Amino acid sequence: MKLSELRFIESWAKTRENGRLRFAFRTGIIWSVITAFLTKIFELSRYSFSEVYLSESFFKFIAFFIIIGAMIFWKFIWELNEKKYHKLLKNKENESNS
Questions:
Q1: What b/e sequence results for 34-62 when a residue is b if at least 16 CB atoms lie within 10 Å of its CB, and e otherwise?
Q2: What is the pLDDT of residue 29?
Q3: Among the residues of the chain, which ranges form H helices?
Q4: Greater confidence, 25 or 63?
Q5: What per-residue confidence (pLDDT) applies to 68?
Q6: Average pLDDT in the 70-95 region?
Q7: Are 70 and 24 in contact (CB under 8 A)?
């Protein structure tokens, strides 16, 4: 088993202990805020910083991203990582029994 796979098992076990809701909010919100800021960065060539990032439309935009981000991480990313985690645990167990 690769070192990266062992690290994933250890890391995901800790994440699972914290729970799905905390994972969705923490990771989803971080992803959402970064994505929202990066998406709007191209508008800085036409508008000022305050027009882009301190406007009502940006706050609506970022709220939308946070809701979508939390939902994505709640549903899809969690389930993908759960599948990977269980698969790697099974592989680790099979290697131990060999």
A1: eebeeebeeeeeeeeeeebbeeeebeebb
A2: 86
A3: 3-18, 20-40, 49-53, 56-72, 78-97
A4: 63
A5: 87
A6: 92
A7: yes
